[in-house]
């Protein structure tokens, strides 16, 4: 039947106080239910929605109302189910956006935060206006903040002129004149394609207004494929010989309002690394950090860490200390810039692993897009100084010195978003110079990856 009878009680809908019952079409009932919901009468809107579902189980409008009101009635699961069904039946992005938004909210009521983030990404994907996109992005950040689970996934593919960090010259020279010999193919720059995969999963516990602790797992693996030119230069050597992998478990304790000069973050990590599919070393790392707000648009972060590496090969163990000062500032125009200075010291029984180093880097991201592209730029310089260094049995006069200059241009294509993810192209270029030709080389790579909009 296209018409049905709904009894309206005075206490449920004051506007109809003079009537004991009215006869409405389905469209009228649907409109009335929506107005009731917008007016804050959740109970009446929910009852009308159930009546509409009785008349037509596939009524998208009624399903949307149930997705919106069931959680407020203490039935979050039923709200999620209604919203998911509305999504399947919806014929327009406008309806799909509402279905995804209210399904996400129902998932939050049900404390299913990962599910809520998935539906918010669907809501972002079907948003009709920038205001809707901003609302979804803000809600996503709120869900991320309250969820005990933290996850990350990064993937990129990068053609590169130097996958192995090899030398640009086939000759082994010291100070450009002391010839030692000829470098093997694997010690020279090998071109090809690299795929990088990085995953992270964390669980936050002991959360309060002043602190939280996170138990994390992080994994990284790259996969290398050599070009035909590289295979000719290093015959019989597969790209997998240069694959790298790291697996790490860490505990991070954050304090939101540290007292005095105390750190705002403490971290302890244990991990293992692999090279070419073979175990390389195991390590432990202790880190301390403190972030200081400098007004409303600037922040200063100071961090120090100590690492102990236990070799799983014939290479001796090593110990390292590292510190960094990073300044971040947002200009009045909306552009952001950053500057960081760092230092490192590594000691080992092996003189070839003992060195000190410095680094300086700067970043800048304009406020305005260049058409459909958001750009970011970065430059950096780093040094390494080995007081003593042996090339085979020959001691290099003055040790080994190395300087690397790098530049990065990142382009984010924000108009090609899918579920809140957009493609990113990054151009990386670096040039290393050293008094030992084995460590003089250059790398140019173009990577393609994806990045979340929020």
CATH topology of the largest domain: Porin
Residue-averaged pLDDT: 90
Shape: elongated
Provide the low-confidence segments as ranges. Answer: 1-20
Give the tally of β-strands: 20
Distance between the first and last residues' Cα: 47 Å
CATH architecture of the largest domain: Beta Barrel
Number of helices: 8
| Fraction of helical residues | 10-25%
Radius of gyration: 30 Å
Query: How do the strands line up in the largest sheet?
Result: 3-6-7-8-9-10-11-12-13-14-15-18-19-20
> Beta fraction of the residues?
over 45%
Number of domains: 2
Biggest sheet, open or closed, and with what strands and sense?
14 strands, antiparallel, barrel
What is the CATH C-level name of the largest domain? Mainly Beta
Q: Keywords, please?
A:
14-stranded antiparallel barrel; alpha+beta; disordered N terminus; 454 residues; Porin; elongated; 2 domains; two-stranded antiparallel ribbon; 8 helices; Serine Threonine Protein Phosphatase 5, Tetratricopeptide repeat; 23% helix
């Amino acid at each position: 039947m296209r018409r049905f009878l709904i009894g309206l009680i005075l206490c449920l809908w004051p506007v109809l106080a003079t009537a004991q019952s009215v006869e409405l079409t389905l469209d009228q009932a649907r409109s009335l239910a929506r107005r009731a919901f917008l007016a804050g009468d959740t109970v009446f809107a929910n009852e009308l929605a159930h009546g509409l579902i009785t008349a037509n189980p596939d009524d998208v409008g009624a399903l949307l109302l149930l997705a919106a009101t069931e959680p407020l009635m203490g039935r979050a699961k039923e709200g999620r189910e209604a919203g998911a069904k509305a999504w399947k039946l919806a014929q327009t992005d406008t309806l799909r956006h509402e279905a995804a938004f209210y399904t996400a909210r129902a998932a939050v009521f049900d404390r299913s935060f990962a599910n809520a983030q998935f539906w918010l990404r669907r809501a972002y994907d079907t948003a009709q206006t920038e205001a809707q996109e901003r609302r979804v992005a803000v809600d996503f950040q709120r869900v991320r903040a309250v969820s005990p689970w933290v996850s990350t996934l990064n993937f990129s593919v990068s053609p590169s002129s130097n996958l192995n960090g090899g030398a640009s010259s086939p000759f082994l020279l010291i100070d450009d004149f002391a010839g030692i010999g000829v470098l093997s193919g694997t010690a020279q720059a090998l071109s090809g394609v690299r795929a990088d995969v990085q995953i992270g999963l964390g669980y936050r516990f002991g959360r309060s207004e002043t602190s939280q602790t996170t138990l994390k797992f992080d994994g990284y693996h790259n996969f290398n494929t050599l070009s035909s030119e590289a295979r000719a230069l290093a015959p019989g050597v597969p790209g997998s010989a240069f694959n790298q992998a790291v697996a790490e478990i860490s505990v991070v304790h954050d304090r939101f309002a540290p007292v005095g000069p105390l750190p705002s973050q403490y971290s302890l990590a244990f991990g293992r690394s692999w090279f070419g599919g073979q175990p390389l070393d195991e390590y432990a790392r202790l880190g301390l950090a403190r972030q200081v707000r400098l007004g409303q648009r600037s922040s200063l972060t100071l961090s120090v860490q100590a690492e102990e590496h236990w070799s799983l090969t014939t290479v001796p163990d090593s110990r390292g200390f590292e510190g960094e000062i990073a300044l971040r500032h947002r200009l009045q125009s909306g552009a952001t810039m950053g500057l960081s200075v760092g230092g490192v010291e590594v000691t080992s029984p092996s003189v070839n692993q003992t060195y000190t180093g410095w680094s300086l880097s700067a970043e800048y991201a304009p406020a305005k897009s260049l058409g459909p592209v958001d750009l970011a730029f970065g430059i950096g310089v780093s040094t390494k100084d080995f007081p003593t260094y042996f090339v085979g049995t020959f001691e290099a006069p003055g040790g080994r010195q190395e300087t690397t200059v790098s530049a990065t241009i990142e382009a984010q294509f924000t108009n090609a978003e899918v579920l809140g993810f957009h493609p990113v192209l990054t151009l990386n270029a670096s040039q290393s110079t050293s008094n030992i030709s084995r460590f003089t080389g250059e790398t140019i790579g173009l990577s393609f990856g994806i990045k979340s909009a929020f």
